[in-house]
Design brief:
Blueprint (H helix, E strand, L loop, with lengths): L1 H12 L8 E3 L3 E5 L2 E4 L3 E6 L2 E7 L3 E4 L2 E2 L4 H44 L4 H20 L6 E4 L2 E2 L9 H15 L1 H14 L4 H50 L9 E5 L2 H6 L1
Antiparallel strand pairs: 1-2, 2-10, 3-4, 3-8, 4-5, 5-6, 6-7, 8-9
Helix pairs in contact: 1-2, 1-6, 2-3, 2-6, 3-4
Length: 269
């Protein structure tokens, strides 16, 4: 039983969407040192809650409320930068939803094996994760205002530093409330094994290994999506650097920092 529960909890706690404000994966990490508010028409940048500048309709730049005259090259850079930020939002959403689905499927596989299909424990965990999934799905849309800073997405319970803990707590609380059912299930499984504890543990370990293998295979798809998101963030950082170098009034506004790990570096880790 320890293998089954541990595997399920690992799946929940090792999801790849820790925090967009401090995005990390095996290839790169990115840190945001300010705030960004994305509305359907405007992207606003701030530092310590104070406004810095904004981009309207991907085309117009305003600093201190005054529109900045731009050259054709600067105009092109501004458009690419703004468009890149907007394009990254659905990528974040996709990675997050896939990770939640993966955790939910892994948990259900574990407890369905132990308690049987249509058990109340799996149903309760699924219900809680579905609610979290709904918040992410509805919150990260182009129709909503999205704001995030160093602490994650402001005003929401997802993608901040407590997001993974929230998922883990939902699972752990449900398991604790159902410990009686789990113990009965263990007893039944042991009876089916003729009272042979070694046989029971071996069967549970085998199932845990198979489930973990399946989850890892599916997790590779999330990893690929995460790496694509990482590259998008790196591209946005490069555009920001070019923009602040080209436009003098933005020279002190560097909000995004990324570090890319080379393959050789990863091989040494």
């Amino acid at each position: 039983m320890k293998t089954l529960i541990a595997t399920a909890l690992i799946l929940a706690s090792s999801t790849t969407f820790a925090s967009t404000a401090s995005f990390t994966n095996d290839s790169c990490n990115a840190t945001i040192s300010g705030g960004i508010k994305i509305t359907p028409t405007v992207i606003e940048f701030s530092k310590s809650k104070l406004p810095l500048y904004k981009i309207v309709d991907n085309e117009r730049l305003y600093v201190n409320g005054v529109q900045v005259d731009l050259t054709d090259n600067q105009q092109s850079l501004l458009h690419d930068y703004s468009s890149g930020i907007r394009a990254a939002v659905p990528q974040v959403k996709s990675v997050a939803l896939d990770a939640i689905d993966l955790a939910n499927d892994g948990i259900n596989l574990a407890f369905n094996e132990l308690l049987g299909q249509d058990n109340t424990l799996s149903a309760e965990i699924t219900s809680q994760l579905s609610e979290i999934r709904k918040e992410v799905d509805q919150g990260l849309t182009s129709d909503n205002d999205i704001y995030f800073d160093e602490d994650g997405f402001s005003g929401e319970n997802f993608f901040n530093e407590d997001f993974e803990q929230r998922i883990e707590s939902a699972i752990e609380k449900t398991v604790q409330n159902s410990i009686g059912s789990l113990m009965i299930a263990v007893g039944q499984q042991m009876l089916f094994s003729g009272g042979n504890m070694n046989d029971f543990e071996s069967r549970m370990e085998d199932f845990g290994d198979k489930m973990e293998s399946e989850m890892e295979f599916r997790g590779e798809q999330i990893k690929k999506s995460s790496e694509a998101l990482c590259q998008s963030v790196v591209d946005i950082d490069a555009l920001e650097d070019r923009l602040t170098n080209e436009i003098i009034v933005l020279k002190d506004f560097n909000l995004l920092t990324t570090t890319v790990l080379s393959k050789n570096t990863k091989d040494l880790m």
